[in-house]
Amino acid sequence: MPHFVVEYFTETPETLDKPALMAAVLEVAAASGIMQREDLKVRLLPSEAILFGDGRRSFIHVTVSLLAGRTMEAKLALSTALTGELRRICPDIQAISADIRDMAPECYKKNLI
Question: Where are the beta strands (DSSP E) in 68-104?
């Protein structure tokens, strides 16, 4: 925990540097000061197809799941940093967004070996 799920679609997926994209998300998250690097999990999920009402043909969306307790200011800073860095490394992606969701600590469970 925390989980960063990066969904994407582009008509030219071979031009997307996937390792750099995931590394950028990890680095921005680690630099945020609101979580520990060793706790971060970044997943990249391609979307099979998209249909945007405004005609755009590519996107990256990051869903961040954090245990509740961070301030709104800290979450806003994280989402702003994420979208800014992704825009920097993916200048041709037409829509870049991030959503930060609080998870109830009482309900989040994991089992590691």
Answer: 95-103
Q: How far is 82 from 99, CA to CA, in rounded Å?
A: 10
Measured CA to CA, the distance from residue 57 to residue 65 in angstroms comes to: 26
Hunting for tokens 């990051």 — which residue is that?
62
Q: What are phi and psi of 20, to 5 degrees?
A: -70, -35
pLDDT of residue 1: 80
- What mean pLDDT comes out for the span 41-46? 97
Q: Which residues contact residue 50 at a Cβ distance below 8 angstroms, ignoring those fewer than 6 apart? A: 9, 57, 59
Integer Cα distance of 40 and 61 in angstroms:
17
Residue 110 clears pLDDT 90, i.e. is over it: no
CATH number of 3-103: 3.30.429.10
